[in-house]
Sequence to fold (309 residues):
Amino acid sequence: MFLFVPYSAASMILKAKRRRYEPIGGKEKNFSCFFVRFRESPAKINLVKSQIMSQTFRHPEILEIARREGKVTVEGLARHFDVTLQTIRRDLTDLADAGRLARVHGGAVLPSGTTNIDYEERRSLKSEAKRAMARACAREIPNGISLFLNLGTSTEAVAQELLHHKNLMVVTNNMNVANILAANSDCEIFVTGGQLRRADGGLVGNLAAETIRQFKFDLAVIGCSALDLEGDILDFDIQEVSVSQTILRQSRKTFLMADQSKLSRSAPARIASLADIDGFFTDQPPPKVLATLCEKWRTKVVIAHKEIG
Fold:
């Protein structure tokens, strides 16, 4: 039997089951589909057709949900697609085998490693939650103070919410933050020196840290790449970690912006502990063990809610 299927949809199945199915002819540059000959019974052919359909239609949407929410669950995806739990488990296994997701109990998360997610991808990840967190954080930032905003899409969202604040002095190592706040004529902006990280407009390294040491800030707002259940604040870039630690030392008060997807990831370098933070802004109640630690450390937890309408 022959099927005419998208090349991208069939490639993984052909790779995994090369002895049972074979392509007819090669894939040319200008063609996105090709024929596959199946040497199996009709029942097994129908199963393969289902697998092809899942990769073609469900897999991209599963990845999009994971990028947006930080995590996907088997039960949630089964309801979303109106398929069985077993079907979703197979989908997640396929995506994990391809390195696109990492399996966890009850679902999957974006894979962790020693490198961060692409900047443009981070901008779209949990964007509504970041805006809600930024609004909550901005309400806690008074007029007339000295403020540091560091790298990250969450701190950029905070900058967007400060466009109507008055008499601010803002120091940043984030070129995007400086460009956003340039629209606020009541905001004096200082940009640190440092090595430009072209991927996200960040300034890092010894020169950035040395500039920061010349100030004493009323408040600093920082982000992070990951957060663990022991309360450790984590990142991928060693140079950025050094700068963030300098920011903490030079600030009278510090806020952390970290949505709940950060708890689903891991990063190799430690910045500090939530014990060193005055306010933790997030989008969902933290796990009980972390909430208990924050209470013990007197770290204020602010749970931002999305505004409707």
In short: The mean pLDDT is 82. The chain has two domains: 2-109, 119-303. The chain has eleven helices and 18 strands. The longest helix spans residues 42-69.
